[in-house]
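Quick log. Single chain, no ligands specified.
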Amino acid sequence: MTYTLDDLLYVMKRLQEADIQSVIIGGTTIELELKKNTFSGDLDLFPTNHYALVEEDVFRTLADQEGWEYGTTGLGTPKIVAKGPKSQVEIEFYDNIMDFYVPEEILNEAKTVEIKGVKIRKISPEDYVVLKSRSEDPEAIDIIRGVKELADQKKIRLDTRKIRERLKLFPETDIPSMRNRLRAAGIEV
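-> predicted structure:
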């Protein structure tokens, strides 16, 4: 699924008007770094003022009011297919549940960017790479490798010192496998 910058801005504005504050935690953060006008895949959001799993009614009510499709992710958290001005945007909301974990420090330090008057909070490329390194997704290493290539081409900035520091936010038992995935993608930390 692809969508435009106008679709992204529309959806983020509607979420904010519905008092759903969130941080972009998925690949959209890299596409925003690249200043793209077209985005691919879904929009992964971590709500910061609602618990996606517990306060499902907040998300369902918004979907009903907007005439958007409502469902759930593989983790059982809300998933909405929103109609933007040009395309649909598949939004997946996440919480720290089961093996899915985003440290508070990463959320609290998310950068705010303003585009056409809409403020969007997003994690850094370093944080995206670290979160991806914890993923069991078989494509995770290739995705990390792609981000590293963008950094090697000077299209985005990737600070390995920050990646190393962020690893410390995760359980000690997870760090060796995270390091191995990063190493397999060409990032030595």
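The first strand starts at residue 2 and ends at 4.
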